[in-house]
Design a protein that fits this description.
CATH architecture of the largest domain: 7 Propeller
Number of strands: 35
Number of helices: 1
Strand content: over 45%
Structural class: mainly beta
CATH class of the largest domain: Mainly Beta
Length: 441
């Protein structure tokens, strides 16, 4: 893209304050003006205040939207927005757009390259041609949504997946062969295989980020493992056929779904015992956590509903109706929207949350048999694994629409977005492998 145009007071190559031509002023007149200014007889006209880029919003494969602070000075004329793809920001090589004064302080820069890192800055010009200092420089990437051309082999029938908080390790549970694979994300390979699990299913990370928990379906246990050396911390007997697990944000309790007894076991982590059993009116499948520490949500496939459970007093709220056979769930980083995969009708319910109970919902058509969903920490997009047609549906949180469908390898059953929101790791049930979808640079 080359949108450079000449504008008053600037040359295309310089981007400075140099005029292409200036009227020659007699030296005596210049001296007189300087003297008058130094004596306070004349005031020097100040440069306009600089703008500040507040946020980057809703990047796509070909556009980036920016929002900035408004200039309220009376002689303000326009904003000038620059962007380039060099290693560092360079105004001389930047493309730019001019936005008239008092327009909206929101602009979408279009016609950008896919999967490219951009540096963005801006300046303000007034009606006298004076120009502000350059603003803060923001860096943003257009989206990739491109599959890597290789996969990582793990164990048999993998399902559970979770990142270490620093994003360097990805843990994958392999239910059929009773192992957990530790993937070195930097090297894109399994660095260690943990053994002696009895049908490991779900994985959750502790609130203090030092350990992770694995449910054992056939043994009826919850195991806690240290990230540092993968040693066993404790093993707690829970209910019949534990599957999903959710960690209290306060770090003191784990909530374990017992599909065999239709209950939730509340595990006191300090004492290593089950301190409470909660009946939720059906067999739960998966969990999602309110990031602000109020509720855990459990999907009830047979009831076509999800049910909130309070972290503080373990009370069960009224079920929230969703689509058919809800399975995997995830909550947006701002805690305002719960995404629910409805495997029975090939939809995702985007449920508005208010004090735990569901408000309005948006229903989105996705691929066949959606199993799992995860939301990038940037809050721009949610990603849905569609098992039967081998696709990932990309949901824009800004518009609540499907903006892309990506073909992946067969049988995607779970996925996790990296903490930096640049990559999604997709677990494939058949074949025992993990594939990678690049999200952004």
């Amino acid at each position: 893209m080359n949108t450079k145009t000449t504008f008053p007071g600037r040359s295309i190559g310089q981007m400075g304050n140099t005029m292409q031509t200036r009227t020659v002023i007699p030296l005596l007149l210049i001296g007189l003006l300087v003297a008058l200014i130094s004596l306070g007889c004349l005031e020097r006209t100040p440069e306009p205040f600089s703008a500040h880029i507040v946020s980057i919003e809703n990047p796509t494969q070909s556009s980036i939207t920016i929002r900035w602070t408004s200039n309220t000075e009376g002689d303000f004329a326009l904003y000038r927005i620059f962007w380039n793809t060099e290693d560092i920001f360079n105004m001389e090589d930047a493309d730019f757009l001019e936005v008239p004064g008092f327009a909206d302080t929101l602009l979408t820069i279009d016609n950008l390259s896919q999967a490219t890192l951009y540096h963005i800055a801006m300046e303000v010009e007034d009606h006298d041609g004076l120009i502000s200092e350059i603003s803060n420089i923001r860096t943003a990437s257009t989206m990739s949504w491109l599959m890597e051309d290789f996969t990582i082999s793990v164990g048999s029938e993998p399902y559970g997946v979770a990142f270490s908080p620093d994003g360097t390790n990805l843990m994958v549970s392999n239910s059929e062969d009773g192992t957990v694979s530790a993937i070195d994300v930097v090297e894109s390979q399994v660095s260690q295989t943990l053994v002696d699990f009895s049908y490991p299913w779900d994985i959750a990370v502790s609130a203090d980020s030092t350990s992770f928990f694995v449910t054992e379906g056939t043994a009826g246990n919850l195991k806690q493992i240290l990230f540092e050396d993968f040693s066993l911390v404790q093993e707690v007997s829970t209910g019949a056929t534990p599957t999903a697990v959710a960690m209290s944000p306060y770090g003191d309790e784990a909530f374990v779904v017992n599909s065999g007894s239709q209950t939730i076991s509340v595990v006191n982590l300090e004492d290593g015992i089950v301190s409470n059993e909660i009946a939720i009116g059906g067999i739960a499948y998966e969990t999602a956590l309110d990031p602000f520490g109020e509720y855990a949500y459990f999907s009830l496939p047979a009831q076509n509903a999800i049910v909130p459970v309070s972290f503080t007093d373990h009370s069960v709220l009224d079920p929230i109706p969703v689509g058919a056979a809800p399975l995997g769930m995830a909550i947006a980083p701002d805690g305002l929207t719960l995404f629910v995969c409805n495997s029975g009708d090939n939809t995702v319910s985007a449920v508005s949350l208010d004090n735990g109970d569901g408000g309005s919902s948006v229903v989105l058509d996705v691929g066949l048999n959606p199993q799992a969903v995860d939301v990038a920490q940037t809050g721009y997009y949610a990603y849905v694994a569609n098992y039967d047609d081998g696709t990932i549906s990309v949901i824009s949180l800004a518009t609540m629409t499907i903006v892309e469908t990506v073909d992946v390898r067969p049988t995607p059953i779970n996925l996790a977005v990296s903490p930096d929101s640049k990559m999604a790791y997709i677990v494939h049930a058949v074949g025992g492998e993990v594939s990678m979808l690049e999200l952004s640079k």
